Amino acid sequence: MTTYWQAVSENLWLALDTLRTHKFRSLLTVLGVLIGTTTVILVASIIAGLDTQLVQAAEQFGTRVVWVYKLQMGSPHKLTREERLRKPLSYDDAMAIKEQCPAVEQVSVAIFSELSEFGLPPSAAHYNGHEMAGAQFMGVDANYLTIANASLADGRFFTSTDDLHRRDVTVIAANVVEQLFQNEDPVGKTIVVDGHPFEVIATLHKFKGFLGDSPDDRDIFIPYWTYRKLYPAAKDHFVSAMAARGQLDEAQDEIRGLLRRRRRVSPNDPDNFGISTAESLISEFRQIISTVGLVMVVISSIGLLVGGIGVMDIMLVSVTERTREIGVRKAVGARQRDIAWQFLLEAVALTGSGGIIGIAIGWLLSFLIRMLVPGLPSTVPLWSVVAGFAVSTGVGLFFGIWPALKAARLDPITALRYE
Predict the structure, then answer these.
(1) Strand pairing report for 65-69 and 236-243
(2) CA–CA gap between residue 109 and residue 135 (Å, rounded)
């Protein structure tokens, strides 16, 4: 066994010495392997960073919250005729969930103008000559703050009494504060939203979005019944239900069963409403990024294939160039397997070195992304490094077999006469 490993070690050093002798040719040969490995490392690091950010953003909404809307939340898609004509959820649906679902601790309901394919219709907010054209205006109840996992920066959230008496008060998000109030305390001031005046009673902390601070943090909240007073025709409701600890699945089942009965869905028909959780949104996004990752791996495989063909070509040329050397080695006692190992290890060393360089470049690019895009914590996972090195050496092993066998099968007499 010791003799065997000594032979492998000697052949490996001989292969590395050959690579040192032909540095530029070796670099050009493994360029495809280098690019393929770099792509794998870079894609894996970006996907890992996106996944981390997604989990943090989704968990910010609460891991026990069930969101219910007439449409399914998640990736955008073209609505079917049935989805476009769906009856919206009602306030009574939200109250039924609160009263008839034992696994649900709290319920919050929001009302707004009907969603378009681009989200909430933008509202115009004004204060003292400043304007915000893209505000997201909605009515919510007093439970919203707790269930949405939002936090107050200043002031107080409106109470059930504010809601019951339909008071013209509002709570505004951080980006609204930045655009309407430059260096002024907004609490106690009056803003005008779509022609209606509201007293600001609180502001919210900046919301952390998918890639850092969210640019969509433009919410203007007023009490639910105040919104109904101003917009009696509004019927679109969004319900948030907080499940009891450890009963998220039970809460979803109870909500689904209750709404199917209330909306008269036949046993064999699909739901005519959507139920989502942080976990389901994370799962859906992971399916999307796994598809993207698969496409990128296929693209990088093309680089590896080209690199492998280049390695086989250059190794066949090397066999021809070193025919006399092979004859001399056989004449002094080298066996066929010694010759085969020499050229096979040379091919593996060639692609393995390209893989190591690709890993280093991929790590460097990942570091630059993390520096230039602080919101994306791009990190190189260990499995990608192992996979990159294993694939690069595997390419050398596969494409080096034929040149190694060709070298090993050379007749020593013919090889010694080769000029």
Answers:
(1) antiparallel
(2) 19
Task: Give 210's pLDDT tier (boundaries 50, 70, 90).
Answer: very low
C-alpha 408, offset from chain centre? 49
Q: Phi and psi (nearest 5°) for 190?
A: -115, 125
pLDDT attached to residue 58 = 67
Q: For 377, phi and psi rounded to 5 degrees?
A: -75, 75
pTM comes to 0.68
Residue bearing tokens 């008839």: 100
CA–CA dist 407, 411 (Å, integer): 9
CA atoms within 13 A on the CB side of 105: 12
The band of 165, judged by pLDDT with boundaries at 50, 70 and 90, is very high
User: Could you give the CA distance from residue 16 to residue 14 in angstroms, rounded to a whole number?
Assistant: 6
Give dist(CA 29, CA 39) in Å, integer: 17
Taking every pair of Cα atoms in the chain, the longest distance, rounded to a whole number of angstroms, is 106
Q: Which amino acid is at 194?
A: D
**Hey, how many other C-beta atoms are within 10 angstroms of the C-beta on 419?**
4
CA distance 356 to 347: 14
Instruction: Specify the residue for token string 């681009």.
Output: 118
Q: What residue type is assigned to position 246 of the chain?
A: G
